[in-house]
Every structure is written in structure tokens, then in C-alpha cells.
């Protein structure tokens, strides 16, 4: 039976409790953990003073951190390249999301909307892949598994909607309708993307052994702090899945 996304009044923890990471993912990377955060009561909208301040501060911090080196030498970025290769993916062609964001910092990250800007700030500040989904467009429990290759992934090409499928064995986040994020954290689908109307969101922070649990928890706390400042009164729930 399909499990719907939680409706107002449903315990967010109950929905998070249904999230799973498949054994074949753990076999591929025993050090993998996912910190899952659900937020209800968000105030959506375009980029604003709060999101700009936090994203600009994160950009400055990254610039200072790697002033005498390269973000590509960051242990967590290196670990994600290794994980992509182990899964048969080329990390310099389809980059882990934190890598893709960090390499754009010198030119300045694009400002997308206040919710996306907030989680991008956390991603670069902590060198951790972070994804955000609109919970009202989610269907069923979130699960991370290796794709069969026939799942649907809704994206755009040339400004037009298209339906693709992941490669067999590709690590994917999915729900009952199809793939929500390909290649662990490379590209999110359009069906569940955060928009100017999103009031409930599901965030995923992907960690490998180079980021210990304390550092992962700190990144999660930073995201909760950011969305709470941007949306006073927001309700959140968090779960670590491994």
C-alpha cells in the first residue's frame, strides 16, 4: 500500500521512521549515513535578506578556508569522488553536489530561492551534499537504493520536461512514483523540487566516514537554525539513517 507524505497534523517523526537505506548501499559504502530533516510551516519565497546573508557568509568562509589550498583536497570531497567511482560513476563528469557547488564559489553561487539558498549555504560551509524536496509532492517513504534501470526520473532538457531513467546499479533516492535524486546527490527531479510555494520540505544530508557524526550533526543543526530564522514557528524533525 502506498504511504502518502505526512499531512498537517501527522507526526513528522512517523514519516521519517519509514525512510530506509538499502543493504546494497551499505555494502557499497559501509561508512555512509544520511541525516534526514523534515520541516513544516516554512515561509517560501524568492531569495531575501536572510538567505542572502547566510549564503554570502558561507561563500566568504569557503574562500578563507581554501585560501591556501583547493576544496578538491577536502577529505569529504575526496571520499565522495571515491564513492562515485565505486558505484561506476565518473565524479568529474557528474559531480557530487557539494563538489559542484564548491567549485562555483569563486564566481558566486546563483541565488535560486530562499529555501534552496539556505541549504546551499549549509552545503558549502560544511562540505556536505545537501538536497531539498517539496514534501507535498512526495509519495510514499523515502528510500535510497541501487536502481534497476527502469525507474522514472522527471527532469528538463532544452526547457522542456522529459522522463529519463537512471543506469542500472546507480544509487538513487526515490519514492513510490519514481526517482527523486540520481547518483546519490547529483541531480534532483523537477517533480519534487523546492519552489516559491513550498511550505513543507524534506532535506537530506549525505555523509561518508571523512565526516564524523559530530560534524554531520553540526551541519544539520546549522540547517535547522537557518530555516528557523527564515521561518519562525517552523516545526522540524530529524533522523540519522545508516
TrEMBL record:
Alphabetical list of Gene3D superfamilies matching this protein: Phenylalanyl-trna Synthetase, Chain B, domain 3
Example GO molecular function: phenylalanine-tRNA ligase activity
InterPro entries, per database record: B3/B4_tRNA-bd (IPR005146), Phe-tRNA_synthase-like_B3/B4 (IPR020825)
Entries under SMART domains matching the protein: B3_4
The organism's place on the tree of life at top rank: Bacteria
SUPFAM superfamilies named in the record: PheT/TilS domain (SSF56037)
A Pfam family assignment: B3_4
Domain annotation B3/B4 tRNA-binding: ranges: 78-232
Annotated protein name in UniProt: B3/B4 domain-containing protein (DNA/RNA-binding domain of Phe-tRNA-synthetase)
Amino acid at each position: 500500500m502506498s504511504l502518502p507524505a505526512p499531512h498537517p497534523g501527522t507526526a513528522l517523526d512517523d514519516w521519517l521512521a519509514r525512510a530506509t537505506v538499502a543493504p546494497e548501499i551499505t555494502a557499497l559504502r559501509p561508512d555512509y549515513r544520511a541525516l534526514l530533516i523534515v520541516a513544516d510551516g516554512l515561509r517560501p519565497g524568492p531569495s531575501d535578506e536572510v538567505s542572502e546573508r547566510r549564503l554570502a557568509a558561507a561563500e566568504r568562509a569557503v574562500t578563507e578556508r581554501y585560501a591556501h589550498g583547493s576544496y578538491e583536497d577536502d577529505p569529504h570531497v575526496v571520499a565522495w569522488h571515491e564513492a562515485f567511482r565505486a558505484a561506476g560513476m565518473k565524479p568529474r563528469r557528474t559531480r557530487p553536489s557539494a563538489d559542484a557547488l564548491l567549485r562555483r564559489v569563486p564566481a558566486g553561487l546563483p541565488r535560486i530561492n530562499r529555501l534552496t539558498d539556505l541549504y546551499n549555504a549549509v552545503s558549502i560551509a560544511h562540505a556536505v551534499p545537501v538536497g531539498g524536496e517539496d514534501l507535498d509532492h512526495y509519495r510514499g517513504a523515502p528510500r535510497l537504493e541501487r536502481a534497476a534501470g527502469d525507474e522514472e526520473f522527471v527532469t528538463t532538457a532544452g526547457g522542456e520536461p522529459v522522463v529519463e531513467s537512471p543506469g542500472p546499479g546507480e544509487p538513487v533516492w526515490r519514492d513510490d512514483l519514481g526517482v527523486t535524486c540520481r547518483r546519490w546527490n547529483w541531480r534532483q527531479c523537477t517533480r519534487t523540487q523546492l519552489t516559491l510555494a513550498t511550505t513543507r520540505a524534506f532535506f537530506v544530508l549525505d555523509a561518508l566516514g571523512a565526516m564524523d557524526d559530530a560534524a554531520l550533526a553540526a551541519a544539520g543543526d546549522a540547517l535547522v537554525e537557518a530555516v528557523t530564522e527564515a521561518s519562525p514557528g517552523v516545526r522540524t524533525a530529524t533522523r540519522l539513517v545508516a
